[in-house]
């Protein structure tokens, strides 16, 4: 029983990373119709930024947790203004290629400066112990990640459903033309939303630094699964991306724990689930079929 | 990329030789050397996961060997025109295959060195066999190079899965704990390592109480399922043996510490680890971990002297792969010098059965039966942070494993 609880907990922790990354992808796709392939690279930059801040300037984890998302968010906004918005009127493929190219450039720049070997990043001392849950001990840092990510998702949900900004973003996501017809300036919100999505990726990166290998390819490895998560949740669906993120984390953890004798299964389970969901609901679990244009 | 060592000196030598009308096996005037020169080819990973443990710094090590050889023999050297060709095989067997052919056929390479990644290494062995050109493998682990895929022109220089398993598995079982839980990446290298370790552990009186193949590549980066399982096995394992490499090893170790397995009485043994891995994880994260090392830079004064020279050129301390590349290049040049020709068959003849002693090879012997280069290996343990007094000096050698015991007996699968 305690084994099951631990595996579940771990699945939720992995899921928290998927959820944060997928949430960013979902809002960006919803607002801009851009499949941001560079999301994984920004996650990597978040982790690397935390590492560089710590080693070069002695900036602790807690400060990095604020600096990196904000900094990367601003960088994302600049990027959106400089290049991405120029391509949004064209086929989505163009921005997909652009962000794919960006990914390669960012990865190689980091590789050039810091090499491919992973860089060390210690767990902040405040969170380095473990918490007893009666049935089992759990590393404090993982508890923190789970709590922090859950809180963040709730906050984003609150902003989207209870504030005027959120209303505009949701409306613009679902029916951009209709929203414009009501006299709302959708364009104004495009850049900040892109920056916000990138900021979330950076935040996930900082959170990952103490428990994952910090190297230039860390985002590339993860992003494939995150895309599967977004597809399962329903492209552009904000609730769907979060639910699917946590769900896929659980499926992976349970798969590894209880199907370890069938490595083929535990390795491909995410994509099997994705294929199954697409057959059943082509728009994803929480997605809505696009109205024919 | 082409680096020329002592072009000026070489051309001077050619003029001098011509002036004297040749003479002696060293002259090269009678075409003892193809193209009157020796070309060494370093084929390895220059940008990916293994580029720091070998990569460009292996080229630096080979250049050091050329400089040392030239300095040692001076005018008596078989040639002063020794150059290095390098290529990036990106750890892909097909790329390794075509680059190796290009090196032998078009770049005039006499010897290919390094070639990490077992699948790529085996491809290059096939090319060497077909072209009848020499190949010293350093970076790859598979015992097939001296087993069913062995051939007359291939030598396996630094280490292999048997050496790692035998050293770490046997000695750790005897000295640290009998019950093991083995975690391995589920592909050829990991499965090979798991088998070799299990055999070595059982032979030493230990027991494998659990084993799991983790997805490879592990896209989630999470190994917690396995790490949580380990301390709850019955009987409880004394040692977690991880066969993961590179970034996956980093993930396993980070999470091993996160779940405080050492405090729960489960020690850590690592199948394959390089100095660069310890550097990126920091000794604090690995303190007490045992592994088998083919060579350690701060083992004795001789190694240290080499490491100092290497650091002046490369800016970092050498891994065992760097030292082995140096040694392999040097021993090849010595063999050519002794044979007076770079004809592959003549050089192979000179190398077979030769005993060698240099900075990398201690009690070294180039076995004639399977072309395994045997030498002393070392059981190493990562020091606690408090004992680390200088950068890169992260381990202490617990035990020297004598050359005769460190490697397996020649395999019956190998027919040269």
TrEMBL record, chain A:
<comment type="similarity">
    <text>Belongs to the binding-protein-dependent transport system permease family. LivHM subfamily.</text>
</comment>
<dbReference type="GO" id="GO:0005886">
    <property type="term" value="C:plasma membrane"/>
</dbReference>
<feature type="transmembrane region" description="Helical">
    <location>
        <begin position="189"/>
        <end position="210"/>
    </location>
</feature>
<dbReference type="GO" id="GO:0022857">
    <property type="term" value="F:transmembrane transporter activity"/>
</dbReference>
<dbReference type="GO" id="GO:0006865">
    <property type="term" value="P:amino acid transport"/>
</dbReference>
<feature type="transmembrane region" description="Helical">
    <location>
        <begin position="141"/>
        <end position="160"/>
    </location>
</feature>
<dbReference type="Pfam" id="PF02653">
    <property type="entry name" value="BPD_transp_2"/>
</dbReference>
<keyword id="KW-1003">Cell membrane</keyword>
<feature type="transmembrane region" description="Helical">
    <location>
        <begin position="12"/>
        <end position="30"/>
    </location>
</feature>
<keyword id="KW-0812">Transmembrane</keyword>
<dbReference type="InterPro" id="IPR001851">
    <property type="entry name" value="ABC_transp_permease"/>
</dbReference>
<feature type="transmembrane region" description="Helical">
    <location>
        <begin position="60"/>
        <end position="80"/>
    </location>
</feature>
<feature type="transmembrane region" description="Helical">
    <location>
        <begin position="258"/>
        <end position="280"/>
    </location>
</feature>
<keyword id="KW-0472">Membrane</keyword>
<dbReference type="InterPro" id="IPR052157">
    <property type="entry name" value="BCAA_transport_permease"/>
</dbReference>
<feature type="transmembrane region" description="Helical">
    <location>
        <begin position="92"/>
        <end position="110"/>
    </location>
</feature>
<keyword id="KW-0813">Transport</keyword>
<keyword id="KW-0029">Amino-acid transport</keyword>
<feature type="transmembrane region" description="Helical">
    <location>
        <begin position="222"/>
        <end position="251"/>
    </location>
</feature>
<keyword id="KW-1133">Transmembrane helix</keyword>
<protein>
    <submittedName>
        <fullName>Branched-chain amino acid ABC transporter permease</fullName>
    </submittedName>
</protein>
């Amino acid at each position: 029983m305690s084994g099951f609880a631990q595996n579940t907990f771990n699945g939720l922790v992995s899921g928290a990373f998927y959820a944060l990354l997928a949430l960013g992808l979902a809002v960006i796709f919803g607002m801009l119709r851009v499949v941001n392939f560079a999301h994984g690279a920004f996650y990597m930059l978040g982790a690397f930024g935390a590492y560089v801040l710590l080693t070069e300037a002695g900036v602790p984890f807690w400060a990095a947790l604020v600096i990196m998302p904000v900094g990367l968010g601003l960088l994302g906004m600049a990027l959106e203004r400089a290049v991405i918005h120029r391509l949004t009127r064209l086929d989505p493929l163009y921005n997909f290629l652009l962000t794919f190219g960006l990914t390669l450039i960012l990865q190689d720049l980091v590789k050039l400066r810091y090499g491919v070997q992973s860089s060390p990043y210690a767990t902040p001392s405040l969170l380095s112990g473990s918490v007893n849950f009666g049935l089992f001990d759990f590393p404090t840092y993982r508890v923190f990640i789970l709590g922090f990510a859950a809180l963040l998702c709730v906050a984003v949900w609150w902003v989207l459903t209870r504030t005027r900004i959120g209303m505009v973003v949701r409306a613009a996501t679902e029916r951009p033309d209709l929203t414009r017809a009501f006299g709302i300036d959708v364009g104004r919100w495009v850049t900040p939303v892109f920056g916000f999505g990138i900021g979330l990726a950076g935040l996930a990166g900082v959170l990952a630094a103490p428990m994952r290998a910090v190297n230039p390819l860390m985002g590339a490895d993860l992003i494939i699964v995150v895309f599967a998560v977004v597809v399962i949740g329903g492209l552009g669906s904000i609730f769907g991306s979060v639910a699917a993120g946590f769900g896929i984390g659980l499926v992976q953890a349970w798969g590894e724990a209880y199907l370890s004798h069938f490595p083929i299964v535990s390795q491909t389970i995410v994509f099997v689930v994705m294929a199954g969901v697409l057959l059943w609901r082509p728009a994803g679990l929480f997605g809505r079929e696009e109205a024919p244009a | 990329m082409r680096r020329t060592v002592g072009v000026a000196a070489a051309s001077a030598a050619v003029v001098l030789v011509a002036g004297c009308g040749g003479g002696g096996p060293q002259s090269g005037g009678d075409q003892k050397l193809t193209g009157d020169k020796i070309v060494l080819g370093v084929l390895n990973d220059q940008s990916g996961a293994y580029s720091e443990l070998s990569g460009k710094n292996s080229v630096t090590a080979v250049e050091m060997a050329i400089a040392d050889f030239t300095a040692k023999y001076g005018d008596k050297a078989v040639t002063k025109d020794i150059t290095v060709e390098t290529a990036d095989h990106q750890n892909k067997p097909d790329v390794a295959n075509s680059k190796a052919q290009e090196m032998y056929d078009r770049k005039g390479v006499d010897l290919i060195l390094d070639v990490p990644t077992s699948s790529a290494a085996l491809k290059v062995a096939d090319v060497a066999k077909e072209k009848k050109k020499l190949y010293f493998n350093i970076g790859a682990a598979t015992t097939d190079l001296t087993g069913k895929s062995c051939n007359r022109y291939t030598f396996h220089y630094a280490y292999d899965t048997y050496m790692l398993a035998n050293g770490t598995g046997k000695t750790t079982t005897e000295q640290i704990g009998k019950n093991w839980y083995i975690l391995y990446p589920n592909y050829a290298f990991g499965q090979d390592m798991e088998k070799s370790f299990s055999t070595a552990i059982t032979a030493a009186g230990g027991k494998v109480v659990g084993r799991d193949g983790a997805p490879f590549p592990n896209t989630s980066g999470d190994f917690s399922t396995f790490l949580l399982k380990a301390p709850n096995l019955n009987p409880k394992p004394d040692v977690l043996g991880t066969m993961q490499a590179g970034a996956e090893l980093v993930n396993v170790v980070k999470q091993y510490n996160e779940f405080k397995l050492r405090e729960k009485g489960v020690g850590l043994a690592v199948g394959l680890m390089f100095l660069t891995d310890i550097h990126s994880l920091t000794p604090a994260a690995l303190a007490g971990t045992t592994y088998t090392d083919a060579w350690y830079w701060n083992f004795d004064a001789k190694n240290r002297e080499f490491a100092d020279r290497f650091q002046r050129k490369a800016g970092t301390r050498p891994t065992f792969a760097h030292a082995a590349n140096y040694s392999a290049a040097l021993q090849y040049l010595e063999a050519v010098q002794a044979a007076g020709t770079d004809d592959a068959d003549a050089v192979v003849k000179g190398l077979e059965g030769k005993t060698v002693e240099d900075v990398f090879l201690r009690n070294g012997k180039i076995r004639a039966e399977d072309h395994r280069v045997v030498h002393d290996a070392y059981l190493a343990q990562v020091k606690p942070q408090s004992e680390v007094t200088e950068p890169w000096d992260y381990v202490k050698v617990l035990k020297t494993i004598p050359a005769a015991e460190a490697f397996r007996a020649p395999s019956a699968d190998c027919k040269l």
